[in-house]
Automatic annotation (TrEMBL):
This is UspA domain-containing protein. It comes from the Archaea. Residues 1-139 form the UspA domain. InterPro entries: Rossmann-like_a/b/a_fold, Universal_stress_UspA, UspA. Belongs to the universal stress protein A family. Transmembrane segments: none annotated. Pfam families: Usp. It comes from Haloarcula vallismortis ATCC 29715.
Amino acid sequence: MIERILVPMDDSEMAQRALVYALENHPDAEITVLHVVGGPSPLGGAATSLALAEDIEAAAEERAEEVFDNARERAAEYDVEITTEVQLGNPARAILNRADDFDAVVLGTHGGSLADRLVAGNVSQKVFRNSPVPVVIAR
């Protein structure tokens, strides 16, 4: 039985669909929304600006807050409370590092721009291939 679900999210529509899938199909599960900040991007823009912040953790939390607010609003529609977590670094690696603590990972088919996917690779594909727990790719 799936009791704990990790839902990695960015600000994409596909990430929202993944959360909805988890909420609709596992209404009694504990859901943790993970947002990874500072991953690779063209010319290192996001990672570089984060590295220049005085308090990296506070800057990461601030960047994640919009994603978390949207996720909380969506979960409230299903009368579910979620927990949130911010990680720094490479998205696929951060997701895989946390996956062992969950029964499943539910994520969208892709997120970010085409340029981000070309530079960073397809996160969902990397997670699917390397996860120690079942992975659901929501479309």
